[in-house]
Design a protein that fits this description.
- The complex is a heterodimer of chains A (about 475) and B (about 250).
- Helix content of chain A is about 45%, strand content about 0%.
- Chain A has about 475 residues and is mainly alpha-helical.
- In chain A, helix 10 crosses helix 11.
- Chain B is mostly helical and about 250 residues long.
- Chain B has a domain of about 80 residues.
- Chain B has a two-stranded antiparallel sheet.
- The chains are: A mainly alpha (about 475), B mainly alpha (about 250).
- Chains A and B meet through helix 17 and helix 20 of A and helix 2, helix 4, helix 6 and helix 7 of B.
Amino acid sequence: MVHRLPRLHLAPVIIILLVLFASLSLQARQAVAQQAVPHPTEGKEDCLSCHKAGGAATVPPATHASFTNAMCLNCHKPAAVAQPTQAAAQPTQATAQPTRPTAQPTVTAAAPSQPTATARPAQPGAPSLIPHPLEGRSQCSTCHGIAGLKPYPRDHIGRPDSGCLQCHVTAASPLAPTPGAAATLPPGNATCLSCHRQTDLSMTLPGGQKLGLFVDGEQFANSVHGSKGLECTACHPNNRQYPHPAVTAKTERELNRGIVQQACASCHPDVYNQYKDSVHGKALLEQNNLDVPSCTDCHGIHNISNPTTTLFRLHSPDLCSTCHADAKLMSKYGISANVTKTYLNDFHGATVRLEADAENPNITSYKAVCYDCHGIHNIKMVSDPNSSVIKDNLVKTCQKCHPNADTNFPAAWTAHYEPSLTKWPLVYFVNLFYSILIPVTVGGMIIFIGLDIARTVINKRASRRAK
Amino acid sequence: MSVTVATHEDETFIRFALRQRLEHIILLVAFTVLAVTGLIQKFNQAALAEGTIQFLGGIERVRFIHRTFALILAIEAIYHGVTMFYTFVLKRERPTMLPTPQDLKDAWQMILYFLGRRKERPLFDRYDFRQKFEYWAMVWGTIIMGLTGFMMWFPIQTTRILSGQWIVAAKAAHGAEAILAVVSILLWHMYGAHLNAEVFPLDTAIFTGKISKERMLREHPLEYARLMEERARAAGEPAPVETPKT
C-alpha cells in the first residue's frame, strides 16, 4: 500500500492540472483565433502524419511540440464549421483569421465529421488520387516503396502502409475532389490563406508578367479593412469558386484596374465618383492609360492604412513623388519632374519632410502637402479652369489655411518654378546680387588676411636674421 | 611730453563702457544661436542639419528658438540705435565709428605695407578701418536679416503692401546674407579679435573694457595722442609737443 498512496495523492493533482490545461486552452482559443482546417477531417485522424516537420502540410508551431493527435480538433475546426462563441467573444479581434460573422448565410453548424460541400474542388498541392481499386492491395509499399515500381516521394520514407489512406483516396471516394468542378469554397479568410499564405505562390498573367499571389494574412488583419473583419471575397468576389476563374487581364496594372472599378467603387462610391472625373481617373477609365494611379497605388492593397492619420498626411508627398519625380515618366506628358524638389525647398515642403522623418505619431501638423492644394481624389489638370491651383482659384485655396491672405499672397510661393528672368525675377536678381557680393567680399577678406599673415612671417624672419 | 600728463607704462585705458560690453555679449549669444538655428534650416536636407533639428526637438521648436533670439537681437539693435542717436545726435559727441576718406587711405597704405612698399603701418584712431568695416557690415547685415526675417515671419501682412515675390526674394536674401554674415564673422572677426598676431589668442578689451597703454600706442596712437592733449588741456598746460609720428 505504500506504493499506491502517492498515486492516490496524485489523482487530484492530475485532475487539477487537466482542468487548468482545459481552461488555459480555452483561454488560448479565445485569445488567438486558430488556424482553421482547410480540408475535411473524416478519415484523417492522424493529423501529425502530415502536419510535422518535413511533412506534406503546415508544420505546427513550436508551442505544439507536446500535443497529440487527439488534441488537434479541440482547437482547430474545419473551415466551414461556424464557431459562434468565438465570433461573439472576439468580434473585432485583429488576427490572421478574422472571426466570421455568425449571420453568414452559407455557414451551417455542421458536425466536424460531415463534409461541408458536395462538389469538392481539388486544392492545389493536395495529395494525389489513387487511380486503381484497393481490393487486395493493402500493402501499398510493395509497389510504392522507395524501391518499388511507382515509388512515393522521398519525404514519405518511413511512413507505415496503414497511414496511406489517411491522405490518399480513390477517385471513386466521396472524399475525392470532383473532377473539373468549380465548387464554392467554404467562407472565411482562412480558406483563402490556406493557399495564399505560401510566399512563393504565383501565376503568369496572359501578358507574360509574373504575378505574386502571396497574401500576408497578418498584414491584412492589421489593415483598415482586415481589422474590421472584411472577407477576402469582399474585394475578390469571383474567387469564391475554386478553381478560380481564369484571369484575362494582361498585366498586373490592368488586373488591378478591374478590381478597383469593381471592389473599391462598390463600398466607396463617393470617392470613386470624384476619382472618375479627376485627371488621373479620366486617363485610366476613359483613355485606358495605365500610367496613372488608381486607388491601390496610393492606399496600398492588402496593407491599406488609415489615410486620416497625421503620419499618412506627412508621408503623402512620397506617394505623389513616386510618379511626379520620375523624369522619364513625366516627360511623356510634358510635366516638370522638379515639383518635389521645389516643394521640399520651400517652407511647407521642408516642414513636412522634417516632421515626417521625425516619425512622431503624436505630432499635430497642418502644413500643406500636395493634396491640400491640388486636391485628393478630385485632382484636376493645373490648366483646367476648375483646378484648385489655377491662378483664378489659387487665393481661395491659400485661404483654406491662411484666411486673411489677399491676392498678392499666392505669389509668395513660386508655384514649383525655379526663379528666372521671367518667373519671379526679383528672386533671380537677389540671387544674382549675392552670387557676386559673397565671393567678392569673402575673396577680398581672404586676400587681405593672407597678405597680413605673409607680412608678419616676413618681418619675423627678418628680425631673427638681424639678431 | 610734459611731466604732469605722462603716463605709467602699465596704465590701462577704458576702451568700452559696461553697457557696450553687455551689448557685445548679447550680440555674441544671439548671433551664434541665430546662425546655428538658421543654417540648419537653410541646409535641412543635409544629414547633419536634419540630425541637429530632430535633436533640438523638431523643426517647429527650431523655428521658435530662432524667432525668440531674432526678437532679442532686434530689441538690442533698436536699443543700440537709440543710444547712438542720443550720443552722436543729441550729445554731439565725436563720431569715432563713421567711415571717413582717411579709412580708404589707411586701407591702401596697409596693403602697401603688407606688400613691402611702405616701411610703417598707418596710424589709427579709436577704430581702425577693419573695425569700422566689421561694424558697418554688422549694421547692414542686421537690417537686411531683420527686414527679410520679419517679412517671412509675417507673409500675410507683408503681401498687403508688397507683391508675393518679395517674400520669396526675402527668403533668398535672408539665406544668402546669412552665409555672408557667418563666413565674414568666421574670417574677419576671428582675424581681428583672435588670430591676429597683435591680440592672439583673444582681444580681451571687449570683455574687460580695458586696453593697455602699450596696445594704445601700437594700435590706436592717434586716439592716445588725443587723450593726452585732453589731459594736458584739463591740467591747464600746453598741448604736448611730442605727437606720435605719422
